[in-house]
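Thread amino acids onto this structure.
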């Protein structure tokens, strides 16, 4: 079988109802396909018109085609019947027989038989009344149904990646007197090291804030990016981690001599080692976030090369977004984090603590620029995958 690139679009209504985390959990848990890209879209009419044409060319069951075309026309446009934001969340997957695997094993088909064995079975609705009329239709997600339509739909996603996708802060409206914030969240690499529902479960906790996702990007941070991102920690570590050095020294040297070593002497020894310890801990974070050791890199090209591990960056927008996200994130130390927070449920230690979130408006701006989720430097990271697959 040949390697295929397939996609899933989470529908605007699913996003509105905060079903995003649950859907992503299913997508990542129930398939061996490689998760290779993520992006938010705010479709204009031209996007929807072209997508509708691909549906009409698929030779679907007439009833399914009618329902899906009407759904797209009614709810996927910026001026839609519900008056809701028509944000959509794109996920890209790569692997053998990817199109059929996603459709058959994970997304599921359109059916009025209510079952929770697929994304559509759990998060979608296809309810038929006693008179045979469809009372409710919500597909939860859209995906390619065959190779031909999948290629055409991927081309649409590529063509509108910049004009209709990326950082879509304008897709969510607020009252004139309201002052929304946009904050950055990064779901850390350990959530992606094995097939797991963990990333979706973390997103589900953040959904309790009622904030809107307005940006998404699958990251492979380079060593240079990781060093810049966590640079402020390097100076903080010198004093903040000195007590760790003191404890380690006391445990090892006390009793090793025929005299007592005072706390002042331990502190003086720690002063000699605190810089080296801070650099060691900083290098550990860089390696964790990039998958590559900065100590073994010798050239600028290696430092700027994409990392070997994944992380998912998300932008959340709303009133008091930074404080709300930090509240659901929990304390940096998972052992001290409040129950029900991300770090309490998914953290292991100070470094592997589930997720990162910006702690101020200024930090959010700095960090967004580094990871490429700032308007001035945002590039569609999904495009290389689509172009390679389509041969364009």
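Threaded sequence (392 positions):
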């Amino acid at each position: 079988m040949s390697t295929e690139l397939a996609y899933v679009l989470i529908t605007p209504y699913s996003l509105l109802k905060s079903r995003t985390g649950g859907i992503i959990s299913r997508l990542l848990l129930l398939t061996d396909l490689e998760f290779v890209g993520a992006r938010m879209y705010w479709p204009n009419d031209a996007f929807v018109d072209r997508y509708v044409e691909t549906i009409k060319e698929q030779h679907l069951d007439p009833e399914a085609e009618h329902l899906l075309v009407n759904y797209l026309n009614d709810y996927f446009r910026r001026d839609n019947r519900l008056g809701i934001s028509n944000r959509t969340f794109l996920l890209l997957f790569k692997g053998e027989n990817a199109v059929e695997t996603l459709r058959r094993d994970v997304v599921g088909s359109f059916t009025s038989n209510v079952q929770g064995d697929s994304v559509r079975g759990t998060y979608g609705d296809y309810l038929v009344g006693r008179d045979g009329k469809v009372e409710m239709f919500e597909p939860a997600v859209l995906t390619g149904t065959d190779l031909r339509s999948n290629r055409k739909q991927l081309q649409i996603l590529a063509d509108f990646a910049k004009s209709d996708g990326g950082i879509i802060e304008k897709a969510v409206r607020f009252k004139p007197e309201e002052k929304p914030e946009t904050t950055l969240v990064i779901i850390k690499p350990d959530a992606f090291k094995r097939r797991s529902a963990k990333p979706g479960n973390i997103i589900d906790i953040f959904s309790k804030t009622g904030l809107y996702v307005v940006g998404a990007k699958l990251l492979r941070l380079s060593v240079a990016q990781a060093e810049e991102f966590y640079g402020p920690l390097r100076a903080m570590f010198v004093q903040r981690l000195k007590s760790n050095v003191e404890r380690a020294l006391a445990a090892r040297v006390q009793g090793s001599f025929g005299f007592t070593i005072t706390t002042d002497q331990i502190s003086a020894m720690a002063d000699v080692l605190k810089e080296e310890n801070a650099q060691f801990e900083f290098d550990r974070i860089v390696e964790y976030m990039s998958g590559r050791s900065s100590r073994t890199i010798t050239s600028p090209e290696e430092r700027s090369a994409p990392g070997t591990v994944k992380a998912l960056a998300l932008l959340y927008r709303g009133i008091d977004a930074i404080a709300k996200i930090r509240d659901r994130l929990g304390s940096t130390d998972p052992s001290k984090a409040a129950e029900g927070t991300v770090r309490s449920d998914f953290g292991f230690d100070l470094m592997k603590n589930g997720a990162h979130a910006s702690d101020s408006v200024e930090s959010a701006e700095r960090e967004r620029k580094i990871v490429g989720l700032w308007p001035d430097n945002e590039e569609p990271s999904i495009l290389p995958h689509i172009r390679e697959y389509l041969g364009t």
